[in-house]
Amino acid sequence: MKLLKYILDTNIYIEIERNNQSIKKKIESYLKKKNGLLYLTSPTYTELFYGFLKRNPKDIKKKLEKLNSLPVLNTSKRSALMCADLKHNLEKKGKIIPIFDLFIASIVIANKGILITSDPHFKEIGKIRLIYL
What we know:
The chain has helices spanning 10-17, 21-34, 42-55, 60-67, 77-92, 99-110, and strands at 4-8, 36-41, 72-73, 114-117, 130-132. By secondary structure, the chain is of the alpha/beta class.
């Protein structure tokens, strides 16, 4: 049986860090029911590390150890082209989505993953598989 790739958006990782039990339980139930693993994307990794630098530099090493426990999916030529295409098509519809979110979406789609998010921007992207919490 193939493992599903559940990809955490930045806002969900932050909720896990805040020990949001509701979010944690929902994610655990998906992992058990559907046989999957958790991942991050490189833009999410970047956003999280930037947040660490801004908030409490004393805890960076500990936070990075936890962050580094998850595999990171990176951009590729395929996802880069997809990102540009998503941006172009959304702008034609008058919808502006932050570029990091478009990179996250394109990496998720290119890796046939499922994004776990609470960010409504992603609902505008029709090709992406979402778990909206």
